[in-house]
Amino acid sequence: MRRPVACSCVGVGLVALGLVAIAAPATAAPHDKVTICHADSDVKKPYVEETVDVDSIVLPDGTLTGHSLHTGPIFPGADWGDIIPVFDYTNSGGGISTYPGLNATARRVSSTL
Ligand SMILES: [Zn+2]
Predict the structure, then answer these.
(1) Cα distances (Å, whole numbers) of residue 75 to 4, 13, 94
(2) d(CA 41, CA 73)
(3) What would the pLDDT profile of 5-24 be if each residue is shown by its tens digit?
(4) How far is the CA of 22 from the centre of ligand 1 (A)?
(5) Which of 7, 30, 38, 86 places its Cα 20 to 30 Å from the Cα of 74?
(6) How many Å lie between the centroid of ligand 1 and the Cα of residue 9?
(7) Is 96 exposed, middle or buried (0-12, 13-18, 19+ CB in 10 A)?
(8) Rounded to the nearest 5 degrees, what angle is found at the Cα of 52, between the Cα atoms of 66 and 12?
């Protein structure tokens, strides 16, 4: 079992800083994995930083799945949702598609994890 890591996204004031830490201008190849802030139900620990397969966010055919369905405002809004950066992924046709992000600014993930 993977132990959750301390999330840089914890705390309202740190949410934006967390995004800056995991996002940067687009220059990278499509991603297989993306670091996100997964919404937790604990107000003392509203987000857990996770590096996940892009398939747990969007499928190659563009179908939204998994974390992309964890919608809601950024904490402390009621029923808050995940924070997912904008990223490119390989679509089912072998081309490049862009996931628009969730509760994120228009930045892209810079590293290939
Ligand atoms: Zn999630």
Answers:
(1) 19, 10, 36
(2) 13
(3) 445 665 543 444 444 444 44
(4) 16
(5) 30
(6) 13
(7) exposed
(8) 80
Cis status of the peptide bond prior to 46, with omega within 30 of 0: no
What's the CA-to-centroid distance between 57 and ligand 1, angstroms?
8
User: In sequence order, what are the beta bridge partners of 34?
Assistant: 52
Show me where the domains of the chain are located: 12-99
pTM of this structure: 0.72
For ligand 1, the distance from its centroid to the CA atom of residue 49, given in whole angstroms, is 10
